[in-house]
Amino acid sequence: MNGFIIKKYQKMASTNTFLKENAHNFSDRTVIVADIQTGGRGRLGKTFHSEDKGGLYMSVLLKGYDAPQELTVRAAVCVHRAIEKAFGLSCAVKWVNDIYYNGKKLCGILCERTGDGSIICGIGVNVHERDFPDEIKDIACSIGDYVDDADKDRLLEAILADMDKALSDDFKEIMAYYKAKCFVIGMKVRVLVGLDDYEALVLDIADDGNLIVMKDDGTAASLNSGEIVLKLK
Length: 233
Ligand code: BTN
Prior knowledge:
Elements: E1 5-12, H1 15-22, E2 30-37, E3 55-62, H2 68-87, E4 92-94, E5 98-101, E6 104-113, E7 119-126, H3 152-168, H4 171-181, E8 188-193, E9 196-205, E10 211-215, E11 220-223, E12 227-230
Parallel strand pairs: 1-2
Antiparallel strand pairs: 2-3, 3-7, 4-5, 5-6, 6-7, 8-9, 8-12, 9-10, 10-11
Helix pairs in contact: 2-3, 2-4
Bound molecules: biotin.
């Protein structure tokens, strides 16, 4: 499908790590899918809960692609559109590339360079998990919570059917979609970047995907990495 070569495995530590270590053995657009990950990785060194068969855990190898920040935005748009097309759920995007539904996280995306000019785009979607571990049970949800026929293969197909377009569409159009779905604009958040930890108001998302925030002292900052934590009040 669109030149994507799908390779399915029952179990591995992490599809991103596997592709990173074996990229030289695989062609461009190889997609590694695992039923279970025993060491799923998230952004900023975090773990990603993926020992449950109910999730879609996949990594796409993009050889000769060297625009990680752009890819992060393109991937979020791709998954957002795919979930909507496959299941009719209209989700929201939390900067930088988490997909949320009903205020809870449904999907995380981790784009990493291989060191030889390629990028691995790792996508983890909670499709029909039922029992999340205590530490995330209040902040995570799965498609199956809202849809009767949540099916991993249907989602995989929808993601790959959209990805070709998401990778090649004019970035301005991708950015416009991303901004329209990103719910953090106008919200008060906690910003975690390196050792910095401060509260700020999200003003906008710049054309390159940077988050523009205003700190409590009135100064503005433009973030191209890091994390924001939503403040409920
Ligand atoms: C995040 O939420 O911080 C990003 C999570 C990315 C998870 C996916 S699952 C498939 C791929 N393999 C990994 O180890 N991580 C990504």
